[in-house]
């Protein structure tokens, strides 16, 4: 099994985190986003969207990081990363969809307009609006995490793995977690896991 991706990408880290938690052996194949390798013909043959990561398992190629998490959970049922009943599966999907549709895009906007783009291309209004949307997601996460160790059930699941890499650099992006004690403690628990330490260096 090979995971093609950029090691600093939250999406690539999400997939690596899942593979490590599942105990599945894989090879990380670096894709250099800085040089535009992901836009080349070789990589686009694997992933026509030219995004990272892409998982190759024999003759099966899968892109979109949350889809990779679903696949990994199915390959390692004993790790209980996926839901074990319809309600758990629905709850996991809810948090993963919220992350994909609302949290991740708005964190990406904050990153783009505070760090990645040249100063003359940054738009403070975009950052302001994105922070409002991020806070809406944090409220929902914190409501759960103030009274539970994990987002769903009694263990780490795919939705914890999916969302954590998006928020791990909250401080760098000046995303204030001081009012979200449950989220802050949950991030600390996840960052302490051997699987995360291995990929985060």
Largest sheet: 4 strands, mixed
Inertia-based shape = globular
Order of helices and strands: EHEHEEHHHHHH
- Under the CATH scheme, the architecture of the largest domain is Up-down Bundle
With strands numbered from the N-terminus, the spatial order across the biggest sheet is 2-1-3-4
User: Average pLDDT, to the nearest integer?
Assistant: 96
CATH topology of the largest domain: Glutathione S-transferase Yfyf (Class Pi), Chain A, domain 2
Helical coverage, percent range: 55-70%
State the secondary-structure class. alpha+beta
The poorly predicted ranges are none
What is the alpha-carbon Rg in Å? 17 Å
Number of helices: 8
What does the model show?
Strand 1 (2-5), helix 1 and strand 2 form a beta-alpha-beta unit. The protein has two domains: 2-79, Glutaredoxin (3-Layer(aba) Sandwich), CATH 3.40.30.10; 86-194, Glutathione S-transferase Yfyf (Class Pi), Chain A, domain 2 (Up-down Bundle), CATH 1.20.1050.10. It is built from eight helices and four strands; from the N terminus they run E-H-E-H-E-E-H-H-H-H-H-H. It has a four-stranded mixed sheet with strand order 2-1-3-4, with helices on one face. Helix content is 55%, strand content 8%. The protein starts with a strand and ends with a helix. The model has no long low-confidence stretch (mean pLDDT 96). The chain is an alpha+beta fold and 201 residues long.
Question: In terms of topology, how is this protein built?
Answer:
Elements: E1 2-5, H1 10-22, E2 27-30, H2 41-46, E3 54-57, E4 60-63, H3 65-75, H4 86-116, H5 124-145, H6 158-167, H7 181-191, H8 194-200
Parallel strand pairs: 1-2
Antiparallel strand pairs: 1-3, 3-4
